[in-house]
Amino acid sequence: MSKRGAFIVIEGLDRSGKSTQTALLLSRLESARIPAKLLKFPDRTTAIGKMIDSYLKSQSDLDDHAIHLLFSANRWELASSIEHLLAAGTTVVCDRYAFSGIAFSASKGLPYEWCRAPDVSLPAPDLAVFLDITPEAAKARGGYGEERYEKEEMQRRVREVFRRIGEEIKGSGLGAWVWVDAGREKGVVAEEVWGHVELLARGVEGPLCRLWT
Ligand code: NYM
Ligand code: MG
């Protein structure tokens, strides 16, 4: 049986270096001649993504539950493409995924279980890499932008929820979760990320799992 592509998710706080690290990972995969595609959530190009973009830029207001469901719907609208890519042997690298959905909404006070529900049975990553940085260090990296949630206190709560999610993923056997110290020089971080990804990216034999099932 031929192997499928690996599903890799990169998570972290705002300013943790996800864009830099996902780009470095993609070029590394290319150099290794491993077919790979980079996706990013929210995908702001779709109709739902445009609503999310407007909310994040505070150009529109939405109930916390409603925006949470839009973020989830934005993943569902791409779920079948992810499955097809993986089945065709392409490694999918995703900048944020359902874990961000839970972490940010739960940090606003929505119940954790409620936040998880709409993402149940989405394709589960084979590996989630959490780029861990302190909210202080993140802020020192040129500060946050103008978007919602980019406040130190919020990021502190988000990091705590991510910690819970990671512990649960590790305990459940649902793919792997690793914490990478993202406060270091980007080349050092990239090397460690590659160390976690390399073997998986050569192809995965088992079936794709579903989140929390
Ligand atoms: N975010 C991202 C959520 O609140 N829920 C989600 O499901 C996802 C995928 O959107 N602060 C938040 C996290 C970020 C913001 O993401 C935009 P980015 O990676 O900064 O474009
Ligand atoms: Mg951001």
UniProtKB/TrEMBL annotation:
GO terms for cellular component: cytosol; nucleus. Pathway: Pyrimidine metabolism; dTTP biosynthesis. Residues 10-192 form the Thymidylate kinase-like domain. It comes from the Eukaryota. GO terms for biological process: dTDP biosynthetic process; dTTP biosynthetic process; dUDP biosynthetic process. One of its GO terms (molecular function) is ATP binding. Pfam families: Thymidylate_kin. Keywords: ATP-binding, Kinase, Nucleotide biosynthesis, Nucleotide-binding, Transferase. Belongs to the thymidylate kinase family. This is Thymidylate kinase. It comes from Lyophyllum shimeji. The gene is CDC8.
